[in-house]
Amino acid sequence: MSTQTAESKRITTKTVLAMKQRGEKIAMLTAYDYSTARLLDESGVDVILVGDSVANVVQGLETTVPVTLDEMIYHTKIVRRGVKRAMLVADMPFMSYQTDIKEAVRNCGRMLKESGAEAVKMEGGKRIVPLIEQLTDIGIPVMGHLGLTPQSIYKFGTYEVRARESAEAKKLLADAEALDRAGVFALVLEKIPAALAAKVSRSVSAAVIGIGAGPGCDGQVLVTNDMLGMNEQFHPRFVRKYADLSATMRGAFQTYIAEVKTSKFPSKKESY
Length: 272
Known about the structure:
Blueprint: H1 2-9, H2 13-22, E1 26-30, H3 34-43, E2 47-50, H4 54-57, H5 69-80, E3 87-91, H6 101-115, E4 119-123, H7 129-137, E5 142-147, H8 153-156, H9 166-182, E6 186-190, H10 194-203, E7 207-211, E8 219-222, H11 224-227, H12 245-261
Helix pairs in contact: 5-6, 6-7, 9-10
């Protein structure tokens, strides 16, 4: 009985879609390690994303392009150990799904089988519709991603807002509707005009999660390290800092160093 109760409380694709239908906002954040994942899960977040942003915030890389499938599987696997309630989604990294459908299906299957993720996320519009149709047909849930797509940064050449112009806005809406028909359960819209994001949210049955896309989406996502103030060099308009952990951590480190050097740590009570 307790197992059934626990399972009924888990967030699933069905849960996410039901939240959209009843107008309940969806809260999503990123995690790349067990400790953060456990805290997020215990705090009640709905969806945890193991993003390829691990390349930036954990590996110290300039873009998300270099991160590998094996690295994404590794980070998702350790995040999985800290998650009991939230839905766990993993990014498919660059070149793990763009070239060949058979290879892409195998890679997505590896992600679910080896990491414990419950869905995969991938960037792209109509071009990836055949892949999404095949994945959903064999039971692999897919979250889409449109707007600013970081894996295409070398194509864009900038991290500026996307779809400001009418032609690109129309294309984005058409791509969103195509992904929706193909079977995505959710769709991330990154750094696009708020009015367009709201229009997309009304136009598709999938749950629309915004990041820099305004309040008209069905939910929101942020990179956890950004919203905790752990990246002092990154100040995009769409990130609200809910803490200043950089200052807190630096202060703690400096106090520890000073107390070690002055023999204030450890004390007799902290010794055996």
